[in-house]
Backbone:
């Protein structure tokens, strides 16, 4: 453990033990430097670590304070999806959500769109516009089917943070995480097979399950611990499941991060039943915990985990630069990538590789983690303020997505229709189920810097929900 | 008909009738201007048209001459593939071909790579590096699932040249033609279905057929007229064929363009049996005929043709900008695109749209057509010079690919192995068959400007083929 980590650990445990309370001013940098006999720079580094961990927050010209952490909100209960494999439906609602972001003047609260306006992305823009100096024609040529070697090297390096030891040759660059997921799903299944998924689950992978003639077996999922291993085990005994598709770190839409022990147990379970695990780690680097949690892939001892990710949520989705580390299924994933797109666009790959190499990725990540942590707390506070009693809210451990479960029989598809005149769109819960569950739920996005406009929009959603509740009461 | 077209038509028919012979000097611009009573500019325009049609060629400071056209080479015979639906094989050889372009120092004669070094592509490079002025963040955001409106508008405009009347809303932008093809194939089939293909056929679409659990029914194909409609009709009667996948204009690998009457008949046949047509038009704009031949889509009266194309062969494959006009199957293709990649990379789309809008596409196309026409004739001459008697060669009507059929029992996979020490790779014929036919064939690429190095390489291939023939004779 480095010196600054020691200082941070000691200060952190004092905060955890209540020695300093929420909102308290923490010791000055100079005081701590004297107390521990370390340099000012070391203390500064320690405070930055505490900031990353969400324990301390700086106030301009005043020093560091213990971060005001809201109490954990009232969480949703463990989900109870259908107990048999199902065909995935609701494509028309997915399409509607995807298109909602394209209408000018509409505040699309449901989309999985990061904030792309941060100044820490400027070097990436420069890298894109400069191309690869002295090699300007390379962007015109087919890239290697596996993806540019420079980028694969950087991805391998970054994956160390998630506890992985990947070689650049283990990695296949894809057109966004969606291609990584769909190529992985197709690589390990045949039409008619069943894929077990966490529930609620990302609609993109579920639509791939639908498109390939597969069925989804939704597994009960806990908003703190993730997919129920007990229910999964029963399902594996009962159905011809070929793969388990989960988003275990900063889950979409529930926001939890599975504890490490459960990640390990999931790998054991997959080994016992000899099935593949498709791990969606797209929000993993945006964890509010620092260093970030380990991926399931890091516990993968017999190469059965297909790790899927992309730069869409940390950097910018318009680049369409994603990647897979498909373990023993690498050749099949390459075949599916060839069949699907032949190669990924060359220029964005080279620009991202350059941006990471020059340290831009880590700088940008640090900034966005802080912004999203703040956004989470503010949005939770707003939902608690404006939404009716009995509303349950997720407590995201990273990323920028909030899951809200409304009381009563409120249908969020209807809610969305009613919000249309106000220019507000939310992400209806049905999209996250194979079978139309979660009608009373919605996904919200807190990636934008908190603003009065967003607060007003949440207030408006709250008013509409209250009205719908009253109408339901009147009928009943 | 415009004035310059009248002049060109008259002069063209004199050439066709033998009034002027190959290599003859044509009348001077001034003489023609006097003869027809038209302006010098009109005659210049007429000569440019004749140049586009491959009838005349300018010589610096000397005027226009009748283009030296080689006699049609000895063409391959009509193909005779297996008479039943088959699973597609040979992925490992496709992969080998794809990777061959990545090894430095290897002359990859088999790849479908255009010349990307032309100065007429410079404005496209500029458009890429400038991004969209004043809207620099747009490249970071998700593009519309259907593709950028600017680009769809330009694609609709260009498609008029192929006789189509498409609205921008009819078009779906894809990650290269490969995504257009695979999304189209998947949109109109279910696992277990049969797809009829021309034969030899593009390996990319055949690998998609394989990946989706379909079977390919290879139809005998004539090197002048294209897919045999008679054999196709028999196959449609006999097998559960759901779609016909063809490359009717500047075919890959055979180079023919189906006559218009046969294109019409193909549409009628598809109507009678109620099947979809997936038309690969990726080389269509590179036709040596001017104006370019009509696409099958232009005869499509009940929206059953899924037209697939891209800018990979005319501009640059590294952009990965393709498109589909899927007719009545548009929504299914959109779903497959969402499942496969969610959206295409934003920046390359905007750059291509700007390049077309400013006239860069037409300028570049004119130049490349002339270069590839010259390349074709030189490569045919080299193959006739260096390859053994009995070699048959295609006579490409556009694009930059040559198909060569060797005499005797020569296996071009073996030939490729033997050429490896010389740093030369050809495209083995087996890739173009579902079932390992065309072992004695190869595909060659004449997109690069003719060079001494390429001539030497072709000579080397010829020597190797001669040696293999002698070895076979010795054994027999």
Residues:
């Amino acid at each position: 453990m480095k010196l600054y980590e020691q200082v941070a650990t000691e200060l952190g445990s004092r905060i955890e033990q209540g020695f300093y309370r929420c909102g308290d001013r923490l010791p000055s940098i100079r005081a701590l430097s004297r107390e521990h006999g370390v340099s000012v720079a070391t203390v500064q580094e320690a405070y930055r670590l505490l900031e990353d961990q969400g324990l301390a927050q700086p106030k301009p010209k005043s020093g560091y304070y213990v971060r005001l952490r809201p109490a954990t909100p009232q969480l949703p209960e463990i989900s109870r999806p259908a107990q048999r494999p199902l065909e995935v439906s609701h494509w028309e609602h997915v399409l509607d959500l995807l298109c909602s972001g394209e209408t000018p003047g509409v505040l699309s609260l449901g989309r999985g769109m990061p904030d792309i306006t941060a100044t820490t992305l400027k070097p990436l823009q420069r890298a894109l516009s400069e191309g690869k100096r002295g090699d300007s024609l390379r962007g015109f040529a087919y890239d290697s089917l596996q993806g540019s070697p420079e980028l694969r090297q950087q991805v391998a390096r970054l994956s160390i943070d998630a506890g992985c030891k990947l070689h650049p040759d283990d990695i296949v660059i894809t057109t966004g995480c969606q291609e990584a997921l769909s190529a992985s799903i197709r690589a390990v299944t045949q039409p008619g097979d069943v894929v077990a998924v966490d529930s609620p689950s990302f609609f993109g992978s579920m639509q791939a399950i639908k498109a390939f003639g597969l069925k989804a077996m939704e597994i009960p999922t806990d908003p703190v611990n993730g997919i129920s291993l007990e229910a999964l085990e029963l399902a594996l005994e009962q159905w011809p499941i070929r793969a388990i598709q989960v988003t275990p770190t900063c889950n979409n839409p529930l926001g939890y991060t599975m504890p490490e022990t459960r990640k390990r147990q999931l790998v054991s379970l997959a080994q016992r039943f000899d099935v593949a695990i498709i791990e969606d780690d797209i929000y993993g680097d945006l964890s509010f915990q620092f260093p970030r949690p380990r991926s399931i892939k890091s516990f993968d001892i017999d190469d059965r985990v297909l790790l899927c990710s992309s730069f869409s949520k940390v950097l910018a989705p318009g680049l369409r630069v994603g990647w897979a580390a498909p373990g023993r299924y690498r050749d099949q994933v390459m075949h599916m990538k060839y069949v699907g797109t032949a190669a990924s666009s060359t220029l964005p790959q080279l620009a991202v590789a350059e941006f990471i190499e020059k340290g831009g990725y880590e700088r940008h990540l640090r900034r966005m983690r802080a912004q999203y942590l703040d956004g989470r707390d503010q949005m939770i506070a707003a939902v608690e303020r404006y939404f009716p009693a009995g509303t349950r809210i997720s407590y995201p451990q990273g990323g920028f997505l909030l899951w809200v479960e409304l009381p009563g029989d409120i249908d969020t598809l209807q809610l969305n229709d009613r919000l249309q005149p106000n220019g507000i769109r939310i992400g209806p819960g049905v999209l996250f189920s194979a079978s139309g569950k979660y009608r009373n739920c919605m996904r919200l996005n807190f990636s934008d810097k908190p603003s009065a406009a967003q607060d007003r929009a949440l207030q408006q959603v709250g008013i509409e929900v209250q009205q719908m509740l009253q109408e339901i009461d009147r009928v009943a």
